[in-house]
Amino acid sequence: MKLLNPFFNRINYLPRLVVFLIVMLLASTLWIAPVNATSVYQMPQVTAGDRTWVIDQAEVISRINEGKIGSALEDLAKDTGNEVRFVTVRRLDYGETIDSFTQKLFTKWFPTPEAQANQTLLVIDTLTNNTAIRTGDKVKTLLSDDTAQSVVTETVPAPLREGEKYNQAFLDASDRLVAVLSGKEDPGPPQLAQNVSVEGTFKAKDETDTGNATIWVVGLLLAATVIPMATYYLYVR
């Protein structure tokens, strides 16, 4: 019986080891999330007149397109005095919303009504793809609140719904804002093609059932194989 005790002790130890590993995994996930979050105080300082037009902290815009957007916004500022800036972040601090973040950043960069007058700030959180915009008083004479909201609810989201095409989203937003703030006619949001397929849109019931069953079986087999092996390896180590 004494010879069997170490064996049973090992068996009793395994569930505790599994629980420990799960707790460590959850703890590491919770620790990583705040590290990747962006607060207003982490953003570089920008003031009216600065030639910084795009701050792509989420790294979703290519250098070529960032250059195109920056050049268009530079020309807009020289020709009209209206300045537009785009900001991307990966995720926001806990409790922060895209609207509150954008408002705080707008006030941080342009603290007075005079500094805000000709400014437009568009921010997107790429974790949720939520977008917000803030404009100064003089900008509102050209860019109405309704048009500004159309930019963030129609122009920017349209390419993102087709596969997170951030480059296209910001190019479209830049073209529309430059046109409106230059006093030209508003080109409006992108026109989405309505392609509806009557036949072949949905899988047959037997195809769906078979596919789901296969996925579940493969997943369960992998879990049943990998988890015990990993647990035993860690125990031996």
Q: For the residues shown, what is the average pLDDT?
A: 81
Low-confidence stretches: 27-34, 195-204
Fraction in beta strands: 5-15%
Q: Helices and strands: which structural class?
A: alpha/beta
Number of strands: 4
Strands across the major sheet, in which order? 1-2-3-4
Distance between the termini: 26 Å
What is the percent of helical residues?
Answer: 40-55%
User: Helical segment tally?
Assistant: 8
Radius of gyration (Å): 26 Å
Q: So what's the overall shape?
A: globular
Secondary-structure element order, as H and E?
A: HEHEHHEEHHHH
Major sheet description: 4 strands, mixed
Write up what this structure looks like:
The protein is 54% helix and 10% strand. The protein is α/β, with parallel strands linked by helices and 237 residues long. It has a 4-stranded mixed β-sheet, with helices on both faces. It is globular and about 65 Å long.
Supply database-style keywords.
about 240 residues, alpha/beta, 8 helices, globular
Give the helices and strands, then pairings:
Layout: H1 5-36, E1 54-56, H2 63-80, E2 83-89, H3 98-109, H4 113-116, E3 119-125, E4 130-135, H5 145-155, H6 157-160, H7 166-181, H8 205-236
Helix pairs in contact: 2-7
Could you write a compact summary of the structure shown?
The protein has helices spanning 5-36, 63-80, 98-109, 113-116, 145-155, 157-160, 166-181, 205-236, and strands at residues 54-56, 83-89, 119-125, 130-135. The chain has 237 residues and is an alpha/beta fold.
